[in-house]
């Protein structure tokens, strides 16, 4: 039977009882319920937007080691922030975090959902999460875990964002909004998982329409993925994997990072044309091909052919700069080549 409002008190009690006993111990859950440390919650919510919790814990602790307070983050140069964010991807998040930290350091912590929404890079979900977890504000979150739990609970195969938010708002435990949001997210992350839900362990099993159907993993139906655009490009490695010529990236995806000099292969042209254009721009001479690497980011699959070259600008130490995963893959081609030269025959 589909859950109805009369079921909500028992349903809320069951989930919160489960959470009080089995909630995850996470490094950003510092402080009493509903009054979590705002800096740690904020950094974690931004970080986990596109990062799994297992990897996110490592990145979170590394970031907090580098910038233990919002004042330290605000005072740091953006280059240092991007370096600490290295490997997390979606670097606009780090740039917005840095900009917003400057505002918080000057004006103090936001005291409401609307105050959080006013900061750069803070959308409705992030603002709802932070305001409920740190201010005790009755705001329901809507993320992938919550979407899956609620879709299964109500047996909805194609839940829209509007539908999920409406159910989350209706079900929210207003007396313990922070704990309720953490409980729903934990349930989705540990029990109501995508491919093999652990229904016998679920505190909401008695009300779950998807479980009663016999096919809980079929809810919700998979989202239609946006088409991936293929991008071809060439890069020059002048130097080696330790010291190389680097350029600062621009644009929304990788803006602010350093990387190997790169040129996109335009539609209708040969790779050799892009390579000649890049070599002429740098005043460099190509000495050979190192290989090809691929990387997918935000609906783009980049195929990058990397060439060794001499001449051009002076190489700089690579370790001190923040590089994208694509550039790290490109530098690995040099390491592989060097190792093969000295490998025993």
Explained architecture:
With 345 residues, this protein is of the alpha+beta class. It is built from 14 helices and 8 strands. It has a 4-stranded mixed β-sheet with strand order 5-1-7-6, sandwiched between helices. The chain starts with 7 loop residues before the first helix and ends with a helix.
Q: In the CATH hierarchy, what is the architecture of the largest domain at level 2?
A: Orthogonal Bundle
Spatial separation of the terminal alpha carbons: 69 Å
Spatial shape: elongated
What is the name of the CATH topology of the largest domain? Answer: Endonuclease III, domain 1
CATH class of the largest domain: Mainly Alpha
Cα-based radius of gyration, to the nearest Å: 24 Å
Query: Which stretches are low in confidence, meaning pLDDT under 50 for 5 or more residues running?
Result: none
**CATH superfamily annotation of the largest domain:** Hypothetical protein, domain 2
Number of domains: 2
Secondary-structure element pattern, one letter each: HHHHHHHHHHHHEEEEEHEEEH
Helix percent reads 40-55%
Individual helix count: 14
Structural class: alpha+beta
| Largest sheet entry | 4 strands, mixed
| Binned strand content | 5-15%
Mean of pLDDT: 94
Question: How many beta strands in the DSSP annotation?
Answer: 8
Strand order of the largest sheet: 5-1-7-6
């Amino acid at each position: 039977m589909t859950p109805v409002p009369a079921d909500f008190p028992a349903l809320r009690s069951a989930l919160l009882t489960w959470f009080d006993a089995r909630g995850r111990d996470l490094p950003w859950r510092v402080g009493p319920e509903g009054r979590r440390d705002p800096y740690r919650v904020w950094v974690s919510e931004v970080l986990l937007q596109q990062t799994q919790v297992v990897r996110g814990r490592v990145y979170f602790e590394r970031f907090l080691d580098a910038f233990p307070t919002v004042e330290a983050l605000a005072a740091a140069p953006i280059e240092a922030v991007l370096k600490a964010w290295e490997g997390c991807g979606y670097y606009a998040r780090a740039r917005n975090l840095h900009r917003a930290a400057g505002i918080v350091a000057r004006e103090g912590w936001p005291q409401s959902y609307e105050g959080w929404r006013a900061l750069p890079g803070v959308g409705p979900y992030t603002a709802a999460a932070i305001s409920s977890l740190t201010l005790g504000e009755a705001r329901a979150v809507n993320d992938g875990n919550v979407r899956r739990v609620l879709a299964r609970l109500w047996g909805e195969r194609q839940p829209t964002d509007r539908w999920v938010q409406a159910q989350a708002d209706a079900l929210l435990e207003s007396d313990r909004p922070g704990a309720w949001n953490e409980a729903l997210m934990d349930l989705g992350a540990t029990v109501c998982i995508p491919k093999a839900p652990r229904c016998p362990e679920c505190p909401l099993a008695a009300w779950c329409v998807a479980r009663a159907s016999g096919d809980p993993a079929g809810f919700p139906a998979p989202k239609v993925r946006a088409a991936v655009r293929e991008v071809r490009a060439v890069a020059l490695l002048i130097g080696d994997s330790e010291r190389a010529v680097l350029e600062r990236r621009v644009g929304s995806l990788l803006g602010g990072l350093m990387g190997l000099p790169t040129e996109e292969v335009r539609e209708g042209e040969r790779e050799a044309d892009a390579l000649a254009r890049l070599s002429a721009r740098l005043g460099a001479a190509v000495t050979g091909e190192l290989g090809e690497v691929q990387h997918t980011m935000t609906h783009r699959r980049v195929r990058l052919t990397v060439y060794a070259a001499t001449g051009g600008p002076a190489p700089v130490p690579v370790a001190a700069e923040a590089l994208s995963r694509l550039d790290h893959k490109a530098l690995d081609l040099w390491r592989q080549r060097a190792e093969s030269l000295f490998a025993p025959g």
